[in-house]
Amino acid sequence: MWRTMNPIKKYPVLSYFLLTFVISWGGILVLIAINGMPETVAEAQAQLPQAIATFLLGPFVSGLVMTGLTDGMEGYRDLWSRMRKWRVGLAWYAAALFLAPVVFAFSHFVLSLYSPVYRPGFMTAPDGGGLVFMAVMSGIIVGIMEETGWFGFAIPKMRQRYSPLRVGLAVGVIWGAWHIMANDIWAIKTYAGEIPTVQYAILSGLGFLIGQLPPFRILMVWAYERTGSLVLMMVMHFSLTACSIACAPTEMTGWEVFIYSLAVAAVFWVIALAVIMADHKIRRINNEH
């Protein structure tokens, strides 16, 4: 047993990521074996709560297990203290809550000028109110369960060796790769449209690796460095998830999906790069004085 534990303690972050992928991807494969892959938007939305709950077990369980294995009770006390750190100022909560809505609103406005297919999903869905409710509830659950792992365990461990930017970018890419199973492969029949399935899977996978998730995670790490609040990270993640579900156009398929994803990702990348450049300039000025 101790020989098995040694590699885990020696490579805690790698162990966390491997365990997260095994649990989440394995869970989705089990769902596919039981229910099959959804072929319509209605089927995907009906199965979405079950898929989300199954997928979230990965980072949540892995975060708690790895915290206990590497840091014991002291690790759990530290995790709990960061979860209770909520007094960070209203400005931070405003930024955490409204960053994603502003980005999605801008993206939908611009794309809607090109085609009505890009109108927000909550405006075109048969039950828009129900979609918003599901988005909010999913956002709450996703924010809490995912960040128990990402910011609860992995990111603080990585920050012991790497800079905030490197950690944000690395975790963002891994975060994107982790999403491929549930957001790409699981619902591929729903959104591939006229694009061949394999081609769609590759393009969609690349979208998760370099799309909106890496810049958003960079912004999250930047905010966490200045607040140390795990609650704030959960709020920020909640907002992104809720907007992603409530705003996703219900009528788009094929290339329209990629245009939409590219537009949202581009806005997030512009914001992330602006924050990085501004932060670098401020630190340089402070160092000169």
Short description:
The protein is an all-alpha fold and 289 residues long. Helices cover 84% and strands 0% of the residues. It starts with a helix and ends with a helix.
| Helix/strand class | mainly alpha
Which stretches of 5+ consecutive residues score pLDDT under 50? none
Number of strands: 0
Overall pLDDT confidence:
91
The end-to-end distance, rounded to whole angstroms, is 54 Å
- Rg of Cα set: 19 Å
Q: Describe it for me?
A:
With 289 residues, the chain is mainly alpha-helical. The protein has one domain (2-288). It is 84% helix and 0% strand. It contains 12 helices and no strands. α4 (90-114) packs parallel to α11 and α6 (128-159) packs antiparallel against α7. The model has no long low-confidence stretch (mean pLDDT 91).
Index terms:
289 residues
Walk me through the topology:
Layout: H1 2-10, H2 12-35, H3 41-83, H4 90-114, H5 121-124, H6 128-159, H7 164-185, H8 188-191, H9 197-210, H10 213-227, H11 230-247, H12 255-288
Helix pairs in contact: 2-3, 2-6, 2-7, 3-6, 4-11, 4-12, 6-7, 6-11, 7-9, 7-10, 9-12, 10-11, 10-12
